[in-house]
């Protein structure tokens, strides 16, 4: 562990996931490293070795004195670092600056803030260090019937969205994840999905009772590799945006697929949208959950928003 006295306020910690983007992180890192050096950064780099390792590395290094963190990875790695920022006890989360060089499969958080997928342009954005303070979501849920908590900074999905994310993640673990994999499973998983009865409460008011196909809760707009499923989300308004797709036919899912990408999904009669600070869901069976692309657990869920609590570095 680095001595806290040896770390200046300007020094950067770079957390690299070599497996991100079907090992794109490993392939691109030598070029990224060289360019970061050329741009004059004072930095230390560490590498993830397993699931949730980025959370552990974040906690350890914040306690060691780092206050500027950059993720070289995808949305999942970014989510792990976010959870490290909120689980550590050394400083308040707002004292940390968080940036990203995207090498993942979806890179959806970067789409929200105009962070280019070209690593040189992403590094140049870090150099300018333009700050933005965004909201963060906190989810309470169950995994194998035990209570769990997770933070998210982009979009959390449940129902069909969680099933698609789970299948995509299994493919990623085999080193075969691609942006098209998620879209493939959007259609391929239709034949095994079973609708669940659910009750949704927003700010202590029941807004929906019935069978649910899918639901997304957004701090930001994009998920699934460019899908705009929560197009009205504002990342610093202190509210979470909800897009609920009610029970519908599989034929309609095929027919309306393009609307997932242009944001017009929310105009369909099979879709309800809501906005609130607190969201609760319970169900007759287990409805499963993902957050920032990471497969988590099952109902009952409680979502809470933490307003303007995370300082991120964004594009122009």
Compute the CA-based radius of gyration: 19 Å
Kindly report the average pLDDT value.
92
Task: Briefly note the CATH topology name of the largest domain.
Answer: Tumour Suppressor Smad4
Q: What is the CATH-assigned architecture of the largest domain? A: Sandwich
Global shape: globular
Q: Note the run of SSEs as H and E.
A: EHEHEHEHHEEEHHEEEHHEEEE
Strand order of the largest sheet: 7-9-8-12-14-13
What is the CATH C level class of the largest domain, in words? Answer: Mainly Beta
Describe, in plain words, how this protein is organized in 3D.
This protein is an alpha+beta fold and 316 residues long. The chain has 2 domains: 4-129, Probable inorganic polyphosphate/atp-NAD kinase, domain 1 (Rossmann fold, 3-Layer(aba) Sandwich); 136-307, Sandwich (Tumour Suppressor Smad4). Helix content is 29%, strand content 35%. It contains 9 helices and 14 strands. It has helices spanning 20-38, 53-64, 75-87, 108-112, 119-128, 160-173, 179-188, 250-255, 259-262; strands at residues 12-16, 43-47, 68-73, 97-102, 131-143, 146-152, 155-159, 196-202, 205-218, 240-246, 271-276, 278-283, 288-291, 294-313. Strand 8 and strand 9 (205-218) form a beta hairpin. Helix 2 packs across helix 3 (75-87). The radius of gyration is 19 Å and the shape is globular. 44% of the residues are buried.
């Amino acid at each position: 562990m680095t001595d806290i006295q040896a770390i200046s306020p300007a020094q950067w910690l770079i957390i690299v996931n070599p497996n991100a983007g079907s090992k794109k992180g490993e392939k691109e890192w030598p070029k990224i490293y060289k360019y970061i050096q050329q741009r004059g950064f004072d930095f230390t780099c560490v590498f993830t070795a397993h699931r949730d390792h980025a959370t552990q590395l974040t906690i350890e290094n914040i306690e060691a004195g780092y206050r500027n963190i950059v993720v070289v990875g995808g949305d999942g790695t970014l989510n792990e670092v976010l959870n490290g920022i909120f689980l550590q006890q050394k400083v308040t989360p707002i004292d940390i600056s968080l940036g990203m060089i995207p090498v993942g499969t979806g890179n959806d958080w970067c789409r929200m803030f105009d962070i280019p997928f070209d690593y040189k342009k992403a590094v140049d954005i870090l150099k300018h260090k333009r700050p933005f303070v965004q909201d963060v979501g906190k989810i309470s849920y169950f995994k194998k019937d035990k209570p769990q908590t997770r933070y998210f900074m982009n979009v959390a999905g449940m129902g069909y969205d969680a099933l698609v994310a789970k299948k995509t993640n299994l493919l990623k673990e085999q080193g075969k994840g691609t942006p098209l994999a998620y879209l493939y499973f959007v259609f391929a998983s239709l034949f095994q999905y079973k609708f669940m009865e659910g009750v949704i409460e927003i700010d202590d008011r029941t807004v929906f009772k019935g069978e649910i196909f899918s639901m997304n809760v957004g701090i930001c707009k994009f998920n699934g590799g460019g899908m705009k499923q929560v197009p009205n989300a504002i990342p610093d308004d202190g509210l979470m945006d909800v897009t609920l797709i009610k029970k519908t036919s599989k034929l309609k899912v095929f027919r309306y697929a393009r609307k997932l990408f242009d944001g017009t999904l929310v105009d369909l009669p099979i879709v309800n949208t809501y906005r609130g600070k607190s969201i609760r869901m319970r169900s007759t069976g287990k409805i499963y959950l993902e957050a920032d692309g990471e497969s988590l657990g099952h109902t009952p869920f409680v979502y809470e928003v933490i307003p303007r609590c995370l300082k991120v570095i964004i594009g122009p």
